[in-house]
Amino acid sequence: MEERKNTSPHILNTSSNLLGICFIVLTSLRLLKLQGKTVIDEFTAAAMILFMISSILSFLALRSKNKSGDRLEDIADICFLVGLFCLFGTTMLIMFNVIK
Q1: Are 19 and 55 in contact (CB under 8 A)?
Q2: Alpha carbon 64 to its chain's center
Q3: What is the spatial distance between Cα 22 and Cα 46, in angstroms, rounded to a whole number?
Q4: Can you give the pLDDT at residue 1?
Q5: What residue ranges do the domains of the chain occupy?
Q6: pTM for the complete prediction?
Q7: Engineered SS bond to 58: which of 12, 38, 67, 86, CB 3.0-4.6 Å?
Q8: What integer pLDDT is reported at residue 31 of this predicted model?
């Protein structure tokens, strides 16, 4: 019998932390009244959705006792990686002063 990768606890922990960071970024943009002036809020919202999906799927993978847990874990892993790329894009936009 093949052993599971069991990366779900790591994905769950990290994606939930990054989800919180995205909330802070989005709230900061709203407080500074910069939403709608840049694409940063759209990138952040996309990252939030992906991190939420990743958190839910990794939790379900942890609870799963059968082979479907591996598939859920793989999908959570992909969502997490795409969310990281969205967050990377947000970081680059903020770093290079795209906000005017």
Answers
A1: yes
A2: 21
A3: 10
A4: 38
A5: 8-95
A6: 0.84
A7: 12
A8: 85
Q: What is the 3-state secondary structure (H, E, C) of the chain?
A: CCCCCCCHHHHHHHHHHHHHHHHHHHHHHHHCCCCCCCCHHHHHHHHHHHHHHHHHHHHHHHHCCCCHHHHHHHHHHHHHHHHHHHHHHHHHHHHCCCCC
- For 61, the token pair is 């993978």
Q: What is the pLDDT of residues 15-40, one digit of tens each?
A: 999 999 989 988 887 888 766 667 88
The Cα-based distances of 70 to 7, 57, 61, 64, 84 in angstroms read: 10, 10, 7, 9, 21
CB 71 within 8 A of CB 58: no
Cα 11 from Cα 18, distance rounded (Å): 10
pLDDT value, residue 82: 96
